[in-house]
């Protein structure tokens, strides 16, 4: 099962870090943009090519240190087909390097449309009886707001194709409480969602005791995360919010079980843009941006292990 493969990668690397490959134009060094713009102009294609070079150079430096990467599809979609080509090629390259892919797509729709999303991302696209694997993610993120019938197509494809999900439960953004903390039958909505996520994953529990239906639980809300861990003992957490959003290692320790497993922690700009930030910008040049990312991964690993 893919959840067991993720856990084994965490054990091998000794690192529950996932690198968010969320390329922003301002993160990409000028020398890369100059190269692609000289060839393709200041075009969508030129930016797509720059993103791919940027991602590959980071992957080359971090693939032996982390179990997984998490490309956020919006950062690619904004450049249209050229951006999506960079998304696909980034996934293919990361897989060649042995990394597990968490596609951060946050899709949600009625059953028929949900099935189409699932076909493209974790299932297969049928073309007159011939099936094609399109985006090739191992896990994807989903929004549960439309209810169980919007999640079922994805769960069915998880069973068929050995894939996994991370469903939004308590997100890291400051205003998540406007909806997620609403009281329903005397309990916060995020707890209701947590119960559903646990139920959805009951038939997909791997040998390590965790389900292939995981939950997104923000590091910026430690008390809520602690409660969700209590009600979802077999649910693996994807934890955003560490670093740039203010989440600390001490805050997210509650996401892990007593053995130090049960969660994978995301950092995006704190790693991929490390060369622009303290304490790395004085030690690494723009041309050494990928090496700065490597050092940021090492520092994050040490920080997490201090508290887990």
In the CATH hierarchy, the third-tier topology is known as: TIM Barrel
What's the quaternary structure here?
single chain
CATH class category label? Alpha Beta
Give me the count of strands.
Answer: 12
What would CATH call the architecture?
Answer: Alpha-Beta Barrel
For the terminal residues, how far apart are their CA atoms?
A: 25 Å
Category by helix and strand content: alpha/beta
**Strand line-up of the largest beta sheet:** 1-2-3-6-7-10-11-12
Topology overview:
Blueprint: H1 2-13, E1 17-21, H2 30-40, H3 44-62, E2 68-71, H4 74-77, H5 80-96, E3 100-107, H6 111-121, E4 125-127, E5 130-132, E6 139-142, H7 148-161, E7 164-170, H8 177-180, E8 183-184, E9 187-188, H9 189-200, E10 213-217, H10 222-231, E11 237-239, H11 249-252, E12 263-267, H12 269-272, H13 289-307
Parallel strand pairs: 1-2, 1-12, 2-3, 3-6, 6-7, 7-10, 10-11, 11-12
Antiparallel strand pairs: 4-5, 8-9
Walkthrough of the structure:
This protein is α/β, with parallel strands linked by helices and 308 residues long. It has one domain: Aldolase class I (TIM Barrel), CATH 3.20.20.70. The chain is 46% helix and 17% strand. It has 13 helices and 12 strands. It has helices at 2-13, 30-40, 44-62, 74-77, 80-96, 111-121, 148-161, 177-180, 189-200, 222-231, 249-252, 269-272, 289-307, and strands at residues 17-21, 68-71, 100-107, 125-127, 130-132, 139-142, 164-170, 183-184, 187-188, 213-217, 237-239, 263-267. An 8-stranded parallel β-barrel has the order 1-2-3-6-7-10-11-12, surrounded by 7 helices. Strands 4-5 form a two-stranded antiparallel ribbon. It has a two-stranded antiparallel ribbon with strand order 8-9. A hairpin with a 2-residue loop joins strand 8 (183-184) and strand 9. Helix 3 (44-62) packs parallel to helix 5, helix 6 (111-121) runs parallel beside helix 7 (148-161) and helix 9 runs parallel beside helix 10 (222-231). The longest helix has 19 residues, at 44-62. The mean pLDDT is 95.
């Amino acid at each position: 099962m893919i959840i067991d493969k993720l856990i084994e990668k965490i054990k091998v690397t000794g690192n529950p870090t996932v690198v968010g490959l969320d390329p922003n134009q301002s993160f990409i060094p000028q020398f890369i943009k100059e190269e692609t713009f000289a060839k393709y102009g200041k075009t969508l294609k030129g930016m797509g090519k720059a993103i791919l070079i940027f991602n590959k150079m980071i992957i080359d430096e971090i693939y032996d240190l982390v179990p997984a990467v998490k490309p956020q599809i919006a950062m690619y979609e904004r450049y249209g087909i050229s951006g999506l080509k960079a998304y696909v090629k980034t996934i293919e390259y990361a897989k060649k390097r042995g990394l597990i892919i968490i596609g951060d797509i946050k899709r949600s729709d009625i059953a028929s449309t949900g099935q189409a999303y699932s076909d493209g991302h974790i299932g297969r696209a049928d073309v007159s009886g011939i099936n094609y694997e399109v985006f090739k993610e191992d896990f994807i993120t989903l929004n549960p707001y439309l209810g169980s019938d919007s999640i079922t197509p994805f769960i069915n494809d998880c069973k068929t194709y050995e894939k996994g999900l991370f469903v939004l439960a308590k997100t890291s953004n400051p205003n998540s409480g406007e909806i997620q903390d609403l009281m329903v039958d005397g309990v916060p909505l995020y707890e209701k969602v947590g119960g559903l996520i646990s139920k959805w994953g009951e038939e997909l529990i791997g040998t390590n005791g965790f389900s292939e239906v995981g939950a997104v639980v923000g590091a910026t809300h430690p008390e809520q995360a602690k409660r969700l861990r209590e009600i979802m003992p077999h649910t693996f957490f994807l934890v955003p919010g560490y670093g740039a959003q203010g989440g600390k290692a001490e805050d997210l320790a509650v996401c892990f079980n007593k053995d130090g497993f049960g969660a994978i922690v995301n950092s995006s700009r704190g790693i991929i843009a490390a060369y622009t930030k303290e304490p790395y910008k004085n030690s690494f040049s723009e041309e050494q941006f990928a090496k700065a990312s490597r050092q940021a991964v090492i520092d994050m690993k040490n920080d997490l292990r201090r508290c887990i």
